[in-house]
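Narrative of accomplishments. A recurring question from our advisory board has been how the design workflow behaves on a single, concrete structure rather than in aggregate. To address it, we present the structure tokens for one chain from the evaluation set, followed by the sequence designed for it. No filtering or post-editing was applied between the two.
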């Protein structure tokens, strides 16, 4: 099997060819939404727009943005997935949840056609990652209501891989399972879980290299964008590492190829991507080196299509040719715009701190959290909580704290107050939250 059992033609179109292909799909989606979605009909009417006003990519700029928190709020007003539900409940065959700022998951519905589209985009991304039919993949994402479990599992199956639905928890038993299964294996998890799993292996006297985990497919965190963090995982496990980026609400995924030169966008024909200034909302050109926040519009969804969904992911776009030969745009993730904070005029992303802490390994594990205890302006030194390795004696803590604070100040250009915590405190089986905002918005 050569992998061409899904639609790959759209991945090779030029930008202009792709826009001509997608324009009628966008027109149909807009008309469908205006007819079936109470939420978007109100959005259009309030903005003084008619469906006929939005017939091409450029016209999308007139449409108001969609925020997850707004959708989560509307779901309290009735219907299975709120007033933006477009398909009848009898056609909705799956429900998943995504994280929301309200603390309650936002419900997302999927018809059979929606699921097929998710699998198509997911399979494109997994192929780019290096996953192949016959690969044995242990999926260590949550199988409760979130997309990383069941939804991504189905994408692996769509490609032809063999998937074991392990989920989260019981890390020690997972290591035994890896040891019992002969041959090469693949791990699908967050990057921080690969670090945590290595710690569990060390505690059990197991050499990670003996488990033959040759490929690591990672998602949910930006850790692999930090070179030292990626190298640490690769060296510990003897695996190749591959980064997967996804927007669960849309099923749109992107992935880095073997050249690790940015994430290839995999939503052609299903999702339109825009780049905006996160502060003003103004659209920015998709040109090489441009930075901004990605915004997404679905053009083939039935159950709950979304227009101009703000991702709050801050990226740098790359349009220069990739050595792999793919022609679509790709991007480097710098962090989430809502994780970015400004200290005395300096923009800080968690990945900046992560890169600095790599220089202090192995005394520090590289796992950390930044605690912001009062609202902006952040004219104070935030608390930086970092894991200290078990073999560092307490008599060295004070010197290590001083060294860490000085290094962050010099390399990242802002002051912190360092707090050391035991190894294994921060890295977990779930997504690791890097910025803790301990104040009311």
């Amino acid at each position: 099997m050569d992998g061409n059992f899904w639609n790959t033609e759209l991945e090779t179109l030029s930008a202009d060819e792709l826009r001509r292909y997608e324009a009628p799909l966008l027109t149909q989606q807009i008309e469908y939404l205006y007819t079936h979605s109470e939420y978007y009909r109100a959005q259009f009417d309030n903005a003084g727009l008619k469906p006929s006003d939005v017939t091409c990519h450029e016209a999308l700029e007139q449409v108001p943005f969609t925020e997850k928190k707004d959708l989560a709020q509307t779901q309290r007003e009735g219907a299975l997935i709120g007033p933006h539900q477009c398909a009848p409940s009898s056609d909705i065959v799956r429900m998943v949840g995504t994280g929301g700022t309200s603390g309650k998951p936002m419900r997302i519905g999927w018809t059979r056609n929606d699921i097929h589209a998710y699998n198509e985009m997911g399979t494109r991304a997994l192929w780019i990652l290096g996953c192949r039919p016959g690969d044995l993949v242990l999926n260590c994402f949550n199988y409760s209501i979130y997309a990383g479990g069941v939804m991504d599992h189905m994408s692996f199956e769509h490609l032809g891989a063999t998937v074991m639905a392990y989920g989260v928890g019981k890390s020690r038993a997972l290591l035994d399972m890896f040891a019992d299964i002969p041959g090469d294996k693949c791990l699908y998890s967050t990057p921080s879980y690969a670090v945590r799993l290595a710690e569990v292996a060390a505690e059990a006297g197991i050499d990670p290299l003996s488990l033959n985990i040759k490929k690591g497919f990672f998602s949910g965190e930006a850790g692999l964008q930090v070179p030292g963090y990626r190298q640490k995982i690769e060296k510990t496990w003897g695996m190749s590492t591959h980064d997967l980026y996804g927007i669960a609400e849309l099923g749109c995924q992107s992935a880095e190829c073997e050249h690790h030169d940015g994430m290839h966008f995999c939503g052609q024909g299903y999702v339109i991507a825009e780049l905006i200034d996160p502060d003003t909302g103004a659209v920015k050109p998709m040109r090489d080196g441009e930075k901004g926040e990605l915004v997404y519009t679905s053009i083939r969804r039935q159950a709950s299509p979304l227009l101009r969904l703000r991702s709050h992911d801050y990226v740098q776009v790359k349009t220069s040719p990739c050595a792999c030969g793919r022609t679509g745009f790709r991007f480097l993730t710098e962090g989430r715009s809502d994780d970015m904070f400004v200290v005395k005029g300096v923009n800080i992303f968690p990945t900046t701190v992560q890169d600095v802490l790599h220089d202090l390994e192995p005394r520090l594990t590289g796992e950390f959290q930044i605690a912001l205890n009062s609202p902006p302006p952040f004219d104070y030194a935030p608390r930086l909580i970092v894991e200290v390795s078990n073999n560092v004696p307490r008599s060295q803590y004070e010197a290590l704290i001083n060294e860490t604070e000085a290094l962050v100040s010099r390399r990242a250009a802002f002051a912190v107050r360092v707090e050391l915590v035991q190894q294994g405190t921060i890295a977990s089986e779930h997504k690791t939250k890097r910025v803790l905002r301990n104040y009311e918005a």
